[in-house]
Amino acid sequence: MKCLTVAPLLALVLVLISAVAHAASWQYFRLGNKQDVQTNPTAGIAMMGGGSDLDDAFRWLCEKGNGGDLVVLRASGDDDYNSYINKLCKLNSVSTLILPDRAAAEDPAVAEIIRQAEVLFISGGDQAYYIRGWQGTPVQDAINAHLAAGKPIGGTSAGLAVQGEFVYGALGDKPDDNDLASTDVLPNPYFERVTLVRGFLKIPHLENLLTDSHFAKRNRMGRTLGFLARIMQDGWSISPREVAVDEKSAFLVEPDGRGVVVGDGKGVYFLKPTRKPDVCKKAEALTFRKVSLYHAPTAAHFDLTRWKGSGGAAYSLSVEKGKIESTQAGGSIY
Questions:
Q1: What's the predicted TM-score (pTM) here?
Q2: Which of 41, 292, 293, 294 lies 20 to 30 A from 26 at CA?
Q3: Residue 54: C-alpha distances to residues 20, 162, 255 (Å)
Q4: Domain containing 73: what range?
């Protein structure tokens, strides 16, 4: 444990006691001022698609914290984000909280650390660990209280995948499984590894919405169409939406729901079905017509409230018996 200091005094006592009791369960690394400060953060969502970290996206997220304390949440790994973010940003402190299991997330001292933060960032990895380990615990409550207070949040890869109301939880994946592919989902939207959950985080403007990362890079369009079809077929929503971010891209959302795309990737894809899936059944190829898309490349803007963009291109996709068709010139789906 490094610099394990939080305020108020009661929180400090909780952390110190818990650090001894749970040293093998969770870890906390802090860089910067040992004392927390209270600032006036501004709401915002940094939706990062994975791959190389984007300096501009982290600077934007840090600015939302107004010089306060940023906490990185992760289930495994180390504190390498601390030095990276500290070099980019003017913050009171940067900390990493590693929560490897559910016992760690049940510790009240962990929730207190989260409550003291002005900015939260959820690291990449495997979102199944976040869903299994954090849902229904004080960690989930503390993150949602942070959001309800109008504080900013960011996430990359798995940390982006859990931001929407609807989440591909990866709960059916085994350690040696390959990435769930579009070719797994299009022939069978009820493929056993398609595990969807909802209501994990309550982020303003991301209600009724699915998020995904590594999008074009890993050819995830087919699987995401399967997810949207399942959400509709299973009665979760009559008109779900999606924000899908490519690697090396990020979508930075202001408090009013308007955002801009940054980075060197292929940008962000905004999907909205216009009708129910025609065929969405177990062991049958998906048929799902007229899903509207808006592709927003770097520097393009999109308004989540109005569901309208500028600087990008609109087109439509349909799935016919498991095969995707596009209205774009040349039939490109991306």
A1: 0.92
A2: 41
A3: 36, 19, 21
A4: 9-266
